[in-house]
């Protein structure tokens, strides 16, 4: 865990807490993990993640902003074919360098 952390205390219905903890345990998460994931996404995305927003307008606005950010990204462009070639080469190297099972 990062060195610069803080404690968060919340009040929640006991039944909701119990059912959520059981559901999260089924996917290998704790309540703290889930809250940390949610708050990290809210901080990064500037609002509730899609699916948790109340209105379609809010989600549409978020989605359009994300698409525009992707379109404006000056990062390197890689065609689908180039990406597949690079991945295939990495797989070939990995398979070639794998030592035989003993």
From TrEMBL:
The cross-references to InterPro entries, in alphabetical order and at most eight, read: Arc_rbn_hlx_hlx (IPR013321), RelB/DinJ (IPR007337)
Key word RNA-binding present:
no
Question: What Pfam families does the record tag this protein with?
Answer: RelB
State the UniProt keywords alphabetically: Toxin-antitoxin system
Q: What family does the Swiss-Prot or TrEMBL record give for this protein?
A: Belongs to the RelB/DinJ antitoxin family.
**What Gene3D superfamilies does this protein map onto?**
6.20.450.20, Met repressor-like
The name this protein goes by in its record: Type II toxin-antitoxin system RelB/DinJ family antitoxin
